[in-house]
Amino acid sequence: MNIGNRIKELRKQRGITQEQLAESIGISFQAVSKWENNIALPDITLTPVLASYFGVSMDELFDFSLKEIECAVKAITNEAYKFRESDPAESRRILEEGLKKYPDNDLLLNNLLYVLNYSDDPDETIAVAGKLIDKTPHYDVRFDALRFLAYAYKEKGDLESAKAAIDQIPEIYFTKLSEVAYLFSGKEKFEAAEKQKWISFEDLIQMMWKIAECYEENGEVDKAVKETEKALELVKIIENPNFDIYTEFFVKQIKRLTN
Which CATH number does the domain 3-56 belong to among 3.30.930.10, 1.10.260.40, 3.40.50.1100, 3.40.50.150? Predict the structure, then answer.
């Protein structure tokens, strides 16, 4: 239900006409008619007046509309996600079409960052990430945008700005998932622990590769090979086909380092 239908529902519950509502809040009945027929939206300055008139909170006034938008946006991001790796251009097209309907939506902009190519066009990523950082009330989205901002600045060779972006992301040594696994039991505990396990495992092998890169940069190739071999062994032990890409990557890097 959108806000026009919500206003119509509340008006009928009170048993008043469009003319009576219009007169009470100082507008024309034609304006009320346009709202209820989804031709126009109430001016933002009128929303607290409407909420007060109907005796509901702002959340109650907008509740159905927000839920409707959230569901629609989620459907768009789910569809775009299907193509994120296989066809980033198609994923981007889906998200940009969504942004035409829901301009500057946080979730759509956040997903868009994942399919923009900050190597080819860092300024585009900087613009989208900057907009998101300035407007989003959600900390997780803001921190994600700061991460992309840092990568884009690094690509431009602006390491000072990259560091300034990263410095705004706090060091956190726990996650919601890890705390759920510690606090609760049963299915909730298992699902949280299982999800966090794979997130932590991927972080582990990625950081092992970063250490190997440091060894290589310092001319300690033997140490780089050993660190990469350890990471490869862990991927084999874990036996998860989702990590096959790492098997291929580590095998390739070991061959490169030992030739």
Answer: 1.10.260.40
